[in-house]
Amino acid sequence: MAKPTPLSGFPELLPAQRQVEQQVLATLASTFELHGFGSIETRAVEPLDQLLRKGDTSKEVYLLRRLHEESAEGHAGMGLHFDLTVPFARYVLENAGRLEFPFRRYQIQKVWRGERPQEGRFREFTQADIDVVGRDTLPFHHDVEVARVMLDALARLDFLPGFRLQVNNRKLIQGFYAGLGVSDEGIDEVMRLVDKLDKLPSDKVRELLVSDAGITDEQAERCLALAAIRSVDDSFVARVRELGVDHPLLDEGLDELSTLVRACAPLATEAVRIEADLSIARGLDYYTGTVFETRLDGYESLGSICSGGRYDALASDGRTTYPGVGISLGVSRVLVPLLQRGLVTADRSVPSVVLVAVTDEESRGDADAIATALRANGVPCEVAPTAAKFGKQIRHAERRGIPFVWFTSPEGTGEVKDIRTGNQVAADPATWQPPTHDLRPTVSRLASLAPQPPMNKETNP
Amino acid sequence: MAKPTPLSGFPELLPAQRQVEQQVLATLASTFELHGFGSIETRAVEPLDQLLRKGDTSKEVYLLRRLHEESAEGHAGMGLHFDLTVPFARYVLENAGRLEFPFRRYQIQKVWRGERPQEGRFREFTQADIDVVGRDTLPFHHDVEVARVMLDALARLDFLPGFRLQVNNRKLIQGFYAGLGVSDEGIDEVMRLVDKLDKLPSDKVRELLVSDAGITDEQAERCLALAAIRSVDDSFVARVRELGVDHPLLDEGLDELSTLVRACAPLATEAVRIEADLSIARGLDYYTGTVFETRLDGYESLGSICSGGRYDALASDGRTTYPGVGISLGVSRVLVPLLQRGLVTADRSVPSVVLVAVTDEESRGDADAIATALRANGVPCEVAPTAAKFGKQIRHAERRGIPFVWFTSPEGTGEVKDIRTGNQVAADPATWQPPTHDLRPTVSRLASLAPQPPMNKETNP
């Protein structure tokens, strides 16, 4: 077999890179669980009509077909999921009678999109989603909750660049446009055009607002003024009020967004910030209140790497409606570019803290016994594959980043050498422990990845 | 949207069932890491020519096609992997220059097979594989290693029924047949027929050995006598010798198998046993030495739930050959039937140990502060969704199996009630800890699942 080549858009990690990903995923999962979110997994496939319900044809779906398809049965109508929201909504409806609401779940799984691969865009990638879903109603404090949980999780990923969580509220935007006199039908079009501000110059958007959405120059001006407002505290409220628009839905949106920003501000750090950004709308998605996007410091070109919001009808079976609020972190989108550039690394490629040296093949059993004692003590270790010269066994450990080598003595104990310092001491495998920070591979980033200073440092706590 | 119905062959778990699966997967992963095995994941898709290389058409492959396929490019030739061995062999070849050998990896992932669904057979399921792969050579002690690692992992799954690991050696079988005078071409056919002993009566197999493999009655008799030998220690060696066959390959196989059984015997417990079973051959798979199968006590009809063996050429690029030895646990095959029958359960459906009660909506912030303090202490918790009467909040906890309810006092501390016992004490959220066994959901099995006594109890250590 010739040497295989990678498949574009299907990233795979080397063992040391996977150590980094594992630590990220474990940190996310344990943080979500601290906040009472339970794990679920859904099957990889959904019926095609479900996958196409959102009507967003840019998410190219992979269809499944059996190699030995005898009939038109079944699989012709199945595809791989392209996000975790569609499957979650289906899971909630399917199991509603067996779930307790409000239902908090996290879901960390691969998703697939038949897109053209590019930086940060993959055909197979891992997402980490949290959602809270209610039956009939879901109080607003759950919007605050999901933002706080994700901020807590991101703050614990301290070997990554900083994050900026940008929040807005659809009620605020829609109420503002309605208060300006834009018709119900015009509001969606205005929102769609304003959402293009990250791609088009503001003058071009103003032009389109007049030509395509049919609003006046004066209305367009104020829509753009609204979208220009940002703040890391609730000072955005006064700036919106200065634009002189009144509407009950606008009031509701301002109230929700300021509550959210005030509740999240105490969690902000230098590396993880939150700001109200009134340009955020989340395009065509069916959000009805809070919306989230997130930028990775220094990697703004990746777009939003953590997005979500409030759906007043995440799912509905006609009789009962299930409102939800959630946020989804693009794990691969953040990690893969950093790992591929070697900007974030683990200091070993194996879990082993100790390599137990083998004096000769006859005494391999003694080395195995040392390893068994270390493992009983929770110390990951491996036994040298051959009874090579000790220098060669030490280099074997070095190449894998294993920090300690154990030399067995005939009495069943021995000496343990820290091969980074050369320090060697007598030790008993039944009680020996490495320093806690050596128990797992250490993940670190290059200094150049240090987070940039926050935009409005003085207002952060 | 009408209520969705499950898809046959694609099992999904409810939150409490998923807690059980998570604990199984975490136990497997941490055991594998204690033994120095690192995690990797491979993409879900492989080129179709790779997937069909094994020539086993019974593993029906799912092909991928993009919904908006503009050209014949790419995806026409891609399918979902049906095991983790084919992708691992490809990963080793693709990354050989960047891996350290011997390379130990574990891989816990979903695989897909377009088979007809039945008990223990799914179209999407999770496997947990461990393998050690060498470059050019791989000493036999790694065969012993993977058996010991899997025994250690299975023994830690003490809420499952017992396991019986059955081991044999292809060299032993092939050497025996060769020593009997069976031709090189006949050996594979004899092995294939003897492998049918679990489905056909022994008389029928004897008949086929004569008619299809072309061996004599006397030869067939001794092949069946060999396959009837089982022992939990190395006493099988003497019984094979009594059959009066001599061959250097037989000697090698006997030596390897007895080494393996002796090295594993000290790890056997009542629940997890090992035995030499000379009928095990692993059919058409390309094993060249050690072979493994495993039966789940009381669920023998599931077939082997954990199988593997030694491949002298797991992968090869023409210049370099990579021998490997590994074993694969069918996690879904074991767990899903037990979970679906409710025989193994978790005592709560959420990770939360504590529900922090809310006195009124105005003081929700106080409850949030208690929760933040508990989380800083590593205690998973959630805050009540509404300020209902305390009786209702307690029932909210009960329905989820949350063992403790925290009542906040105005000073920011409060009282914590164990709702199982009714015991309520004053407590400080900065220091309070639940009993360690309450930190995570407790997984338990029905008493009827207690392991059966081992077959040869007196010979277990």
Automatic annotation (TrEMBL), chains A, B:
It holds the Pfam family tRNA-synt_His. GO terms for molecular function: ATP binding; histidine-tRNA ligase activity. GO terms for cellular component: cytoplasm. Keywords: Aminoacyl-tRNA synthetase, ATP-binding, Cytoplasm, Ligase, Nucleotide-binding, Protein biosynthesis. L-histidine binds at residues 83-85, 113, 127, 131, 282, 286-287. Residues 102-351 form the Aminoacyl-transfer RNA synthetases class-II family profile domain. One of its GO terms (biological process) is histidyl-tRNA aminoacylation. It comes from the Bacteria. It is an enzyme of class 6 (ligase). InterPro entries: aa-tRNA-synth_II (IPR006195), aa-tRNA-synth_II/BPL/LPL (IPR045864), Anticodon-bd (IPR004154), Anticodon-bd_dom_sf (IPR036621), His-tRNA-ligase (IPR015807), HisRS-like_core (IPR041715), HisRS/HisZ (IPR004516). It catalyses: tRNA(His) + L-histidine + ATP = L-histidyl-tRNA(His) + AMP + diphosphate + H(+). The keyword Isomerase does not apply. Its EC number is 6.1.1.21. The keyword Lipid biosynthesis does not apply. NCBIfam families: hisS. Belongs to the class-II aminoacyl-tRNA synthetase family. Homodimer. This is Histidine--tRNA ligase.
